[in-house]
Amino acid sequence: MTDRIKTSSTDNAGAINSNSKEKIDLSIVIPIYNERESVDRLYKKLDKSLLKLGIDYEVIFIDDGSVDGTYNKLLEIHKKNSSYKIIRFRR
Known about the structure:
By secondary structure, this protein is of the alpha/beta class. The protein has helices at 39-53, 70-80; strands at 26-32, 57-64, 84-89. The termini are far apart.
């Protein structure tokens, strides 16, 4: 069982709401730092595999203060698929 994180930060796209009635079978947490060049490839491979499972899932990217545009790429992914969420830390 995983704990839900409640946040009010506007920097956290798709922030996890502890009051959500959404049923999640699988949560994947991925720490990420300055991976702008590889995050699209990761998303495509991961999403393809998760869709094959046929379960409800969420992927939570933890952006640890990237300065190379990774956060903007993650926002694009979130806009395409709201199952992908972002928590952003700034340095």
